[in-house]
Amino acid sequence: MSNKRCAECGGKLGPLMHRHWSLRFCRLACKKLYLHKLDEERRAKVRWFAFLARGSP
Ligand SMILES: [Zn+2]
Fold it and tell me: 1: CA distance to ligand 1 center in Å?
């Protein structure tokens, strides 16, 4: 199994790739998209925990 794939779109990586930790992205747009999704996930979790902390009405 090759990990020479973009973590976002799964496309082949060219000589110019962008990294984020151990992840690789074929384009800067892919990296941005991935980080954006990660951020959204985190925000959704925070929202959910805030909802739980408030308790049921
Ligand atoms: Zn990509």
Answer: 18
